[in-house]
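name: query_chain
kind: protein
chains: 1
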Amino acid sequence: MILEYHKIDQPENRWTRTPDNLRRDLLRLWERDYRLVALDDFLDRTIRLPRGTTPVIMTFDDSSPGQFRYIERQGEWIIDPDCAVGVLEAFARSHPGFGHAATFYVLPGADPPNRLFNQPTLVTRKLTYLATQGYAIGNHTLWHANLSRYPESVVRSQIATAQEWIQRHVPGYRPRTLALPMGSFPRDLRWAATGGTNGAAYRHDAILMVSGGAALSPYARNFDPYHLPRIQALEGEISGWLTHFERHPNERYVSDGDPSTITVPAGSAARLRQIPGSRVVERP
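structure:
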């Protein structure tokens, strides 16, 4: 599951998850033996988890304030315990082994409050923190542009300029993935995958949609990193997919504890792509 969150705030609604419900989501995942993995590790097929656990990926779109907020206490800036980063890190401390990886798809040129978490004087501090503390920064275009509506020049400018703005705060950082605003692909996928404009080049290893359900294993023959589905973090969606995998355990990715071995049910090896250096084992 690649979970897609937007606002972390009050009250709960279509695009908002409350801090307490985010905590509840994490607890439900933990109790069902899910563990956070980085989206980059998923793409690189370096999913290192204990035997019997299942990877889950968290993404946050639109860089709204409740995703990452600093508050001042006794003259020092600290991470707000009710923002997404604060919730993730507190849960990781109290549940060792769960992890706190997440990808934040930011909007460098959006109107407030969605411009880079809405604390202008702390932008560099925040993006640097994400880039160095086990999180990832993803491209979400400059200001949430519907890429299906624009010609090639605008699509490339939206993506390249967003990356340039990120790199002003974190020099040399390369966003590896793009989340499509509104799930809208440009007329030519290649415009979003790789290219550049005005001397700025970008290259994405994956493109994420806004819906579509659970993603295939990166070892699956039909795995397509440029059409990665996500599960929107709504109560019904999360509960529905957790129930689905409880009822259909053979569809759930479960780690065998050995990254160099791909263990699959007997008779299903043909559904895998050939991965150099990996060994496939079929089990009853």
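note: The domain at 2-259 is CATH 3.20.20.370 (TIM Barrel).
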